[in-house]
Write a structure and sequence with these properties.
- It contains 13 helices and twelve strands.
- The protein has about 350 residues and is α/β, with parallel strands linked by helices.
- The strands form three sheets. Strands 3-2-1-4-5-6-10 form a seven-stranded parallel sheet, with helices on both faces. A three-stranded mixed sheet has the order 7-9-11.
- The model has no long low-confidence stretch (mean pLDDT about 95).
Length: about 350
């Protein structure tokens, strides 16, 4: 048995593949385009392991995807491949539309043709799991109930609109063609291998370099944080026992505003790698807000808890300590991913704001 993972050289996909092979031992084929966010280094520990195959390519390449399905005969596709950074989607939405919408539709079409050709029992066992985000539901006010799976979609950024569109197409392929799909909508992840354009690794990276820690607006925007290995275990449970055509919200019940997150990271750095110049929190700098910045996300994770018995293993306290420790121990990884294109992005985005 084999599964195909797309976007497995990125943050969550790489953690998923590492956890998957350790937890199940089942072979994985990783199809990844290797955009700026894809880093084969993340999977270096699998070099020479015959349970892991890497293929560089685009989910939008129909011939390549069909060929991979025929060659590897997977029992499931887990689709992580996406453009994932909200700020980049504001600067340039085109890649988001191309990969997140057109690419996902292409994958659905290829998966359908393959699934329809499968004999039993492989036909009934096949699954297409689409990894999506809580951002499709839009923004909550402070007193609102967290998002359930029936919350109306109201995406506000080009990124979340492209993910919402992909979720709709996944739903349509199930409803119209019967493709056995599952969709997960998860809250903000953090942990090892996250590209330092996202809040937590950006703050760690800048603090250690003595650079300003940019917080948009008043720092009161709220996100619901989940340690990445908990997201991975949730996806495994949904793939195993999720009901076909259903969506499952995944979250850690860890709502924090951005200022609280940044202060926690600074306190951990003060403890683990003190700076003689004083607390890292001295570097906090409030900068211009993100355009259309969603105020609050929060996930009601009771459906996956009730139906599949999934619960996160990490609290924010344990997860963020592990994360800060990991970045301190992997300065070489950070050094490699923060050269080249990364510097251009930081200059373009933060200088434009200053
Ligand atoms: P990431 O940006 O770190 O990684 C994305 C990966 O997809 C990269 O390896 C990239 O090379 C690859 N990719 C991009 N375009 C591709 C294409 N056309 N064909 C093949 N590969 C392509 O993203 P991430 O943070 O790991 O997120 C993974 C998935 O999880 C995304 O679908 C995202 O929407 C979703 N998600 C992320 C979070 C989060 O907090 N990061 C939370 C919920 C859901
Ligand atoms: O909610 C799930 C989503 O979480 C995923 O779907 C996205 O792929 C992922 O990128 C993430 O989106 P966010 O926009 O919430 O994550 P980001 O790390 O970019 O920002 C987290 C919060 O921190 C947000 O309120 C914006 C703020 N922020 C971010 C950056 C990069 C700052 O204040 N300063 C910054 O420099």
């Amino acid at each position: 048995m084999t599964i195909i993972v797309t976007g497995g050289a990125g943050f969550i996909g790489a953690n998923f593949i590492l956890d998957w092979i350790e937890a199940t031992g089942e072979p994985v084929v990783n199809l990844d385009k290797l955009t700026y966010a894809g880093n084969p280094d993340n999977l270096a520990s699998l070099a020479g392991d015959d349970r892991y195959t890497f293929v560089q390519g685009d989910i939008g390449d129909s011939a390549l995807v069909s060929n991979l399905l025929e060659r590897h005969r997977p029992r499931a596709i887990v689709n992580f491949a996406a453009e994932s950074h909200v700020d980049r989607s504001i600067h340039g939405p085109d890649d988001f539309i191309q990969t997140n919408v057109v690419g996902t539709c292409n994958l659905l079409a290829a998966a359908r043709a393959y699934w329809e050709s499968l004999p039993e029992p492989e036909h009934s066992a096949f699954r297409f799991l689409h990894v999506s985000t809580d951002e499709v539901y839009g923004s909550l006010e402070m007193g609102d109930d967290p998002f359930t799976e029936t919350h109306p979609f109201a995406p506000n950024s080009p990124y979340s609109a492209s993910k919402a569109a992909s979720d709709h197409f996944v739903r349509a392929w199930h409803h119209t063609y019967g493709l056995p799909v599952l969709t997960t909508n998860c809250s903000n992840n953090y942990g090892p291998y996250q590209f330092p354009e996202k809040l937590i690794p950006l703050i760690i990276h800048n603090a250690l370099a003595g650079k300003p820690l940019p917080i948009y607006a008043d720092g009161q925007n709220v996100r619901d944080w989940l340690y990445v290995s908990d997201h991975c275990s949730a996806i495994r449970r949904v793939l195993e026992d999720g009901r076909l055509g259903e969506t499952y919200n995944i979250g850690g019940w860890n709502e924090l505003n951005n200022l609280e997150v940044v202060n926690t990271v600074c306190q951990l750095l003060d403890e683990l790698q003190p700076d003689s110049a004083g607390s890292y929190s001295r570097l906090i700098a409030f900068v211009e807000d993100r355009a259309g910045h969603d105020r609050r996300y929060a996930i009601d994770a009771r459906k996956i808890e009730r139906e599949l018995g999934w619960k996160p293993a990490e609290s924010f306290e344990t997860g963020i300590r592990k994360t800060v420790r990991w970045y301190l121990d992997h300065a070489d990884w950070v050094g490699r991913v923060t050269s080249g294109e990364y510097r251009q992005w930081i200059d373009r985005h933060y200088r434009a704001e200053a």
